[in-house]
Design a protein that fits this description.
The complex is a heterodimer of chains A (54) and B (253). The longest helix of chain A has 41 residues, at 13-53. Chain A has two helices and no strands. The radius of gyration of chain A is 22 Å and the shape is rod-shaped. Chain A is mainly alpha-helical and 54 residues long. Chain B is an all-alpha fold. Classes of the chains: A mainly alpha (54), B mainly alpha (253).
Chain lengths: 54, 253
């Protein structure tokens, strides 16, 4: 099977690939967002700590 | 003397305390992520490449490999949230509250995925993106229940009180779960009946079934990873000024 015919999905490419795309996007957001927010929160907490020590 | 063996009861007591839970999550996340990625790769390879084209639906049926596992997860996570809500209400267990609220966006995500992929599958097969039938409508209500849990928790300032409120909402909303599950049998609907759970004779070929089960398992491990990440954030938010967070920051510095 060629890559082209694989991507073509028997004519259903416009339905199959957006379905997989949306899934990948939502799953990625739900893991990456808490990681980024946690890093930001940790930075805020450590800044506050330093201010309090002064 | 306790009926539960000492190492197990020690494990539960420790994981009930925030710093131990945090450290435990850190230890497990890389392994859970690795298992998720392996299952995902195997499931996608089997589903998109190895599995044959369906004789009725052509290649459009390949949406099943995300649609069905996502729909299963949307129900599974809600039931877990109701159980954690019950635990939080009865025993006031902090980690149950944290895991409940950490699970809500992930469940909402899977519900959204089930609805969107179903729509993208419905258009070529039924000729419509959406119908107000029992299965689709009850799944949409599930999305609103998840969003309700998220916004109710965000709206109440005192997080212990907020957790009690969402625990009750999660428990009350669980009546929707059997309605979603049996909707295709109770009402006439465009949505097809169960394919896999007819255990005596699943109406799906094994080369199509195995990737489906792999994807379902992959999504379970994804849930664990995402929920632990969200739980770590929630713990830090709640206990930002506590001693263990200071120690954690000193260790990282």
């Amino acid at each position: 099977m060629s890559l082209e015919s694989f991507l073509y999905m028997g004519g259903y490419a416009v339905y199959v690939w957006p379905a997989y795309g949306v899934t990948a996007l939502v799953l990625a957001i739900n893991v990456i967002l808490p990681i980024l927010q946690r890093k930001q929160l940790l930075r805020q907490i450590s800044l506050r700590e330093k201010r309090e020590k002064r | 003397m306790s009926v539960i063996p000492a190492p197990i009861s020690r494990f539960f007591h420790r994981s009930a305390s925030s710093p131990h839970f945090y450290a435990l999550a850190d230890r497990f996340i890389p392994w859970l992520t690795a298992i998720f990625l392996l299952l995902l790769a195997a499931g996608l390879y089997g589903g998109l490449y190895l599995a044959p084209t369906d004789y009725q639906q052509g290649d459009s049926y390949r949406i099943i490999y995300i649609h069905v596992p996502a729909a299963w997860m949307s129900l599974f996570i809600y039931v877990l949230m109701a159980i954690m809500g019950a635990i939080a209400l009865v025993w006031h267990m902090k980690m149950a509250e944290v895991m409940l609220i950490a699970s809500a966006p992930i469940g909402a995500g899977f519900t959204f995925i089930a609805l969107v992929t179903g729509s993208l599958w419905g258009k070529p097969m039924w000729g419509t993106w959406w119908v107000w039938d029992a299965r689709l409508t009850s799944e949409l209500i599930l999305l609103f229940l998840y969003l309700g849990v998220i916004s109710l928790y965000g709206a109440i300032e005192d997080k212990r009180a907020a957790a009690r409120a969402v625990s009750i909402l999660a428990l009350v909303g669980v009546v929707n779960i059997p309605i979603i599950h049996y909707s295709v049998q109770w009402w006439n609907t465009l949505h097809q009946g169960p394919t896999v759970s007819k255990m005596d004779k699943p109406s799906i070929h094994v080369t199509m079934l195995v990737p489906l089960l792999l994807m379902a398992l992959a999504f379970k491990f994804y849930y664990l990873v995402a929920a632990l990440q969200a739980a770590k954030l929630e713990l830090l938010k709640r206990e930002a000024s506590s001693q263990w967070v200071k120690t954690l920051l000193e260790k990282q510095a």
